[in-house]
Amino acid sequence: MHQDDLDEISKILSKYDLIEWTVIGFDSSREYKIFSYFTDLSIMPVFKCVLISMLKTIEQNMEETNYRYEIPCGNC
């Protein structure tokens, strides 16, 4: 993800008074990347617990259902 993308996400979310955010992206091999922006690092321990819980749930669900969903790529 490019800095321009991160700046645009921050700009959009700031309209809703959201200053802390995370985007999780998955690729076709079921690997994931996490992009985050936090202004208050004291939230990190809570975020870590929530994120680990979410990823474990997603991974378990993907393994149990052999789920695969493909989104066609295009321009917005």
Description:
- This protein has 76 residues and is an alpha+beta fold.
- It has one domain (3-65).
- The chain contains two helices and two strands.
- The protein has helices at residues 3-14, 44-65; strands spanning 21-26, 32-37.
- Strands 1-2 form a two-stranded antiparallel sheet.
In short:
The chain is of the alpha+beta class and 76 residues long. It has helices at residues 3-14, 44-65; strands spanning 21-26, 32-37. The chain has a two-stranded antiparallel ribbon with strand order 1-2.
Our count of domains comes out at 1
Order of helices and strands: HEEH
Rg over CA atoms, rounded to whole Å, is 15 Å
Low-pLDDT sequence parts: none
Shape: globular
Question: If helices are DSSP runs of H or I spanning 4 or more residues, what is the number of helices?
Answer: 2
In round numbers, the mean pLDDT is 77
Distance between the termini: 16 Å
Strand content: 15-25%
* Residues in helix, %: 40-55%
Assembly annotation: single chain
**Largest sheet: spatial strand order:** 1-2
What structural category do the secondary elements indicate? alpha+beta
Tally of DSSP β-strands: 2
Instruction: Give a quick account of the main beta sheet: strands, pairing sense, barrel closure.
Output: 2 strands, antiparallel
Notable characteristics:
76 residues; alpha+beta; two-stranded antiparallel ribbon; 2 helices; globular
